[in-house]
Design brief:
The chain has about 375 residues and is of the alpha/beta class. It folds into 2 domains: about 130 residues, Response regulator (Rossmann fold, 3-Layer(aba) Sandwich); about 190 residues, Hypothetical protein af1432. The protein is built from 15 helices and 5 strands.
Length: about 375
């Protein structure tokens, strides 16, 4: 604040030197004289100065010992210290500078030189403090900006989640036989992901995924069913071969829909997960799946994971053309499909987590 004078403590065991120094400085600074290093530390308990003028040759505690004590205390370590000395010894000066002194002033004082050196060091301190203050302000601004970005990101993710849930509801509204399928599969996926982390499988791939994006995007795996006729989608019986071929097109229809979104926006991990999940969850490990006949690890991991949870949920759910399988029956079918329909590694993870699947299927979520 304008009008507040910088504070200087001058330390010298000779009263005449203290009086001279105070008389020179008092017009420009608030001066606190100390006749010993012990008195210096008494003053420091109440006053934090902008600069300390410290005599080297003093009884009991000399200037070197005093500066060591200053620099060892975090309260005082940043206070600049100028040594006052009648010595003309390069070795002594070097020792003082190595201990942290910012300058040397020889006694007897040259008044203009004393004032100019003090002025320069006070200015350096002021500039340093101003810089630190600006850095703090910039850091506060950066933190606030980061918080704003995080808030906006959360808002976007929340909106995205609501839109996805609405689309999922539309799909399920049309496919009346799959009530709750999309939300259950999302929960099953989380169980598989946790199981993969436990047995350290596919971690190189999973480490590159944003799991929130993947789990949200999985809700679009059957979005292509919107393009399927109600007569086929809700047929109260088994589909004919021709009808099943039409039903299979829900995969490519879903991929087309997501690609149209991609064509009108920047590439995003969420959409990339969505297109792989929707496009490959009916592929089979042995290459007999659709629509591309991909095989083994040539099938994206998204599709391989979704294949298991999708089939499990279909098995334990009642359909117009079949009754629901028990959880045990569904587990047996998936186990038998290891190496043909399903990735064997993922089947092991599924079997280890089958109790969690049973809870989810019964809506008994803890």
């Amino acid at each position: 604040m304008k009008g507040i004078r910088s504070k200087i403590i001058i330390v010298d065991d000779i009263v005449a030197n203290l009086d001279q120094g105070r008389n020179i400085l008092k017009t420009f600074y608030a001066v606190y004289p100390a006749q010993s290093a012990a008195k210096l530390f008494e003053i420091l308990e109440n006053v934090i100065p902008d600069l300390i003028l410290l005599d080297i040759n003093m009884p009991e505690m000399d200037g070197y010992e005093a500066i060591r004590k200053l620099k060892a205390d975090e309260r005082y370590a940043d206070i600049p210290v100028i040594f006052l000395t009648a010595l003309d010894n390069e070795k002594n000066e070097l020792e003082g500078l190595e201990l942290g002194a910012v300058d040397y002033i020889s006694k007897p004082f040259s008044v203009p030189l004393l004032l100019k050196r003090i002025e320069n060091h006070i200015l350096i301190v002021k500039q340093k403090n101003d810089l630190l203050k600006k850095q703090e302000q910039l850091q506060d601004y950066a933190n606030n900006l980061q918080n704003m970005v995080l808030e906006k990101t959360e808002e976007v993710l929340e909106l995205q989640s609501v839109v996805l849930a609405t689309i999922a509801d539309l799909v399920e509204f049309r496919d009346k036989s799959t009530g709750g399928h999309i939300m259950r599969t999302k929960r099953y996926l989380q169980v598989i992901i946790d199981g993969l982390a436990d047995n350290e499988a596919y971690q190189e791939i999973l480490s590159q995924w944003n799991m929130d994006y993947f789990l949200q995007s999985a809700q679009l795996h059957d979005v292509g069913k919107i393009a399927i006729s109600d007569l086929i989608l809700n047929k109260p019986g088994k589909l004919t071969e021709e009808e099943f071929e039409i039903m299979k097109t829900h995969v490519t229809a879903g991929v087309d829909a997501i690609e149209r979104v991609l064509n009108h926006t920047k590439s995003h991990a969420f959409l990339e997960h969505a297109i792989l999940t929707a496009g490959t969850h009916h592929e089979k490990w042995d290459g007999s799946g659709y629509p591309l006949g991909l095989k083994g690890r040539g099938i994206p991991l998204e599709g391989r994971i979704m294949a298991i949870v999708d089939v499990y949920d279909a098995l334990i759910s009642e359909r117009p053309y079949k009754t629901a399988f028990t959880h045990e029956e569904a587990c047996k079918i998936i186990k038998e499909g290891a190496g043909t329909h399903f990735d064997p590694v993922l089947v092991d993870v599924f079997l280890n987590a089958q109790d969690e699947f049973a809870k989810i299927s019964k809506n008994d979520i803890e």
